[in-house]
Amino acid sequence: MTQSSYPLIAFIGGGNMASAIIGGLLRAGRPAESLLVVEPYAPQRDRLAVEFAQLPVLAAADASLARAALVVWAVKPQLFAEAAAACASHVDQALQLSVMAGVRVGAIARASGAERVVRSMPNTPALIGQGIAGLYANTAVSADDRVLVEQVLAPTGRTLWVEQESDLDAVTALSGSGPAYFFYVVEAMSAAGQQMGLSEAQSRELALATCAGAAALALQSGESPTLLRERVTSKGGTTHAAISSLQADGVGAAVQRAVLAAQQRARELGDEFGS
Ligand SMILES: NC(=O)C1=CN([C@@H]2O[C@H](COP(=O)(O)OP(=O)(O)OC[C@H]3O[C@@H](n4cnc5c(N)ncnc54)[C@H](O)[C@@H]3O)[C@@H](O)[C@H]2O)C=CC1
Ligand SMILES: O=C(O)[C@@H]1CCC=N1
After folding, report:
1. Where are the alpha helices (DSSP H) in the chain?
2. Cβ–ligand 2 contact at 101 (below 6 Å)
3. Quick one: 160 and 182 in the same domain?
4. Residue 183 shares a structural domain with residue 75
5. pLDDT for the residue 4
């Protein structure tokens, strides 16, 4: 592909999530000049300049945004309306891709003036190319648009399309917020390691390597987590003692309640920002 044959991608907001996608695209060989970022916060612009040489970054929206085939919304949901007001007159012909939690396609179409909108819900492992992003497209989005979105997100990890926009609230609760649940469990396992006399570094290494290995085993074997758990659990052994303790404390139900609380919050955010 020649440099000029790459459709221009504009990012509104150049923070964590935008950086994860930009880093993936550059690593995959996309030229920096085929990207454009609007980032009003000067220290963040400096960080982008250090991390991504040659990346064109604007301090404010201007008419050059009109060249973008794809506009990626990567601001905090609370700042979307303000950011959209500054960009709408330049971006209304482009395909819109949002990574914002809770802002629904209707609100994005209205504020950007654009017809074609894809909402995505990525997660932070996108930073190392191991994320998973849920995707939802409105009816104006074409098959070619979907392919472009998949290409843009591919370097950050997997993608999964959902048919109902409301399913993105479940995706947000499960995989969007999910890395935090995992870190919470690792924190608790590491604390227990230290309580038993291991050092902080030893505890963390053992907990993280175990979780990474267990996830890789589950993914590669394709076997159910229940079967894999039962295979670790010897009758009358140590795992049985631990799982019995978790069950007595109602940890499984507590995790389910936590995920449903996140889904409820995702719905509330959607209602807040309008449909
Ligand atoms: N952090 C996470 O785990 C996930 C975050 N998200 C979503 O991604 C979005 C971005 O999150 P982060 O990258 O973590 O936030 P961030 O705060 O790192 O990045 C947002 C950037 O937008 C910039 N900004 C503020 N006002 C702007 C404007 N008017 N025009 C252009 N840029 C503006 C800020 O200066 C900041 O650099 C949020 O909507 C969040 O819901 C989605 C999935 C996971
Ligand atoms: O906590 C949040 O609202 C965002 C969405 C998913 C992860 N972080």
Report:
1. 16-27, 42-51, 80-91, 105-112, 143-153, 167-171, 178-195, 200-221, 225-232, 238-248, 251-273
2. yes
3. no
4. no
5. 60
